[in-house]
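In response to reviewer comment 3 from the previous cycle, which asked for concrete evidence that the modeling workflow produces usable outputs, we include below a single protein chain processed end to end. The sequence was submitted unchanged, and the resulting structure tokens are shown without manual editing.
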Amino acid sequence: MSGASPPSSLRLRGHTLLCLQGFRGEGYSPGFTDNLTAIHHSLTENPDHPVELVEEPDAVCRACPHRAPAGCTLNGNGSEAGMQTQDRHVLKRLGLAAGSVVRWRDVLDRIRVSIKGSDLPNICGQCRWLPLGYCAEGIEKLRSQEAISPLPDTPPQGGREGRGC
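The workflow returned the following structure tokens.
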């Protein structure tokens, strides 16, 4: 009997689940942006894709120029501890636990009913992307039952490299 094997799970941090809602093709570096674009596209095209929830560097971090052996250094040494706290907060809000493997569509359903765009300042703290409103807009679209928006063909002029996700 032949058939395609199920896709392997994609490791995603708790806070990345929210970042993906607002991703618009911008990022820290071209490599980071290309990686996140591929992840976004894969999940958008296959909402049944299994996602392993983690509180540590994930598939998105793999291409981040701020990743060091000890984890995130975006805001200097010690950034990883703050990211892990944020990951735990998001997973708790969603009623999920690190180590769980769930379908992407189930993650979206939980975001839809558990988080509003107006909740993000309390969840995301000092995230460099928060003032742009991308994630809040993406979450509100999700809450109104719209699918995650496909990425534009090209990022907006004057990309935001160096800000983060």
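The chain is about 40% helix and 10% strand. We consider this sufficient to address the reviewer's concern, and the full set will be provided in the supplementary archive.
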